[in-house]
Design a protein that fits this description.
The protein is of the alpha+beta class. Helix content is 31%, strand content 44%. The protein contains three helices and six strands.
């Protein structure tokens, strides 16, 4: 039988879910909860795979250029979300339309570590082929 979430896990789950709800509604994003010193790693072999040393590094080099390639914003749909103490894991699909009119779809798994109500560390996994295609096909 599943154990109930402890207070920390419950609070962290609520923080991340609120960020995804805002992202879905177009009123915010999970990145609003990133601490300024948050370390974000994109794992794998995509053109964006590396460790980003803080929030601004990640937003400047990934999120803003990604959004600039889109004509219709990326909208997430959570498949599953799990919390254990300071860690929240989110498996989700996201879809939007690039500026060249071609749909972009990908599936992501994020492993997030929170302190207080802020994300301080993240490891992100996704289909690098789909991401690289968008990144190389649509200039900023």
């Amino acid at each position: 039988m599943a154990q109930p979430l402890d207070d920390v896990a419950f609070r962290n789950l609520a923080t991340v879910r609120a960020g995804f709800d805002a992202w879905s509604a177009g009123t915010g994003s999970p990145y609003d909860s990133l601490a300024d010193h948050a370390r974000w790693e994109i794992v794998g072999n995509s053109v964006a795979s590396r460790v980003y040393v803080d929030k601004e590094d990640f937003l400047t080099n990934v999120i803003r250029p990604f959004n600039a390639r889109m004509s219709q914003r990326l909208v997430p749909t959570i498949r599953d979300i799990f919390a254990d103490r300071d860690t929240v894991i989110v498996l989700f699909d996201a879809a939007g339309v690039a500026r060249d009119g071609i749909p972009y779809r990908n599936t992501y798994a994020w492993f997030l570590t929170l302190e207080g109500d802020q994300i301080v560390r993240a490891s992100a996994f996704f289909d690098a082929i789909a991401f690289n295609d968008l990144w190389q096909r649509v200039p900023v």
